[in-house]
């Protein structure tokens, strides 16, 4: 019987099995890497994992508390309990809002865009966030938080800029507060304006919404028809500030 070196024998055995070395490695790689539905390579987001009604990763739970680090920087921490035998990657997108159980504590806004590796067992990891109110207390280690949607507008821009510049300090915290205040002011104007316009259309047009139009800045060249509450809100947001019904303001 001919004698073969180990490398030659291994290659011949692979040929006999009908599997080339490259194909074998590919099969092994696919079987070892968990699938991901997220563009950043994460298996789930933190709010998905903490969704009590429909958790994104069965067998994995997360709880968020203050880290004791103050208003900004690594001010929050997440503790994972992974009862599976798999390691997961969980992302914390910028702009995730965390609501405190204690209303006297700051609402926190994430800014680190972290993706955390979560092995089996228990693990605790800090992550970056800014405070969302000027006057509430900073988060302590006993303060618990739950996800409460996402921010947008100037607030999201400020958080994104902080992440891109890697600036998680008191100066940036002030910029975040200013952005939160500006968005709140804009939302207040939009809500009040929308309510007034909707009331006018509902009360005066009485179903003839096609007869109602909105003007921007009083100019005759910027006129849009109104066709429902949602359209009214979009027009208000775009700066249309006067309503006419059957030609009357």
Structural commentary:
The protein has 249 residues and is of the alpha+beta class. It has 3 domains: 33 residues, no CATH class; 125 residues, no CATH class; 59 residues, no CATH class. The protein is 35% helix and 26% strand. The chain has 6 helices and 13 strands. Strand 5 and strand 6 form a beta hairpin.
Distance between the termini: 103 Å
Main beta-sheet annotation = 7 strands, antiparallel
Structural class: alpha+beta
Beta-strand residue percentage: 25-35%
What brief labels describe this structure?
249 residues; alpha+beta; 3 domains; seven-stranded antiparallel sheet; three-stranded mixed sheet; 6 helices; 26% strand; disordered N terminus
What are the SSEs and their pairings?
Blueprint: H1 6-17, H2 21-32, E1 44-45, H3 46-49, E2 60-66, E3 76-82, E4 88-92, E5 96-100, E6 108-110, E7 114-118, E8 121-127, E9 129-131, E10 144-150, H4 153-165, H5 170-205, E11 212-216, E12 223-225, H6 229-237, E13 240-245
């Amino acid at each position: 019987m001919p004698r073969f070196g180990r490398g030659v024998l291994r290659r011949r055995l692979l040929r006999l099995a009908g599997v080339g070395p490259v194909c074998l490695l590919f099969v092994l790689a696919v079987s070892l890497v968990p699938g991901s539905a997220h563009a950043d390579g994460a298996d789930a987001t933190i709010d998905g994992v903490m969704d009590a009604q429909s958790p994104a990763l069965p067998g994995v739970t997360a709880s968020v508390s203050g880290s004791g680090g103050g208003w900004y920087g690594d001010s929050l921490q997440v503790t994972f309990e992974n009862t599976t035998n798999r390691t997961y990657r969980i992302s914390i997108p910028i702009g995730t809002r965390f609501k405190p159980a204690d209303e006297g504590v700051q609402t926190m806004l994430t800014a680190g865009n972290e993706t955390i590796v979560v092995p089996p067992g228990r693990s605790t990891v800090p992550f970056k966030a800014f405070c969302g109110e000027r006057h509430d207390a900073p988060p302590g280690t006993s303060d618990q938080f739950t996800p409460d949607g996402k921010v947008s507008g100037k607030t999201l821009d400020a958080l994104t800029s902080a992440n891109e510049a890697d600036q998680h300090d008191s100066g940036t915290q002030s910029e975040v507060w200013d952005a939160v205040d500006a968005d709140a002011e804009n939302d207040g104007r939009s809500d009040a304006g929308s309510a007034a316009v909707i009331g006018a259309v509902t009360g005066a047009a009485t179903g003839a919404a096609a007869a109602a139009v909105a003007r921007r800045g009083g100019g005759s060249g910027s006129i849009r028809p109104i066709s429902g509450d949602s359209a009214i809100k979009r027009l208000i947001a775009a700066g249309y500030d006067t309503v006419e019904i059957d030609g009357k303001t």
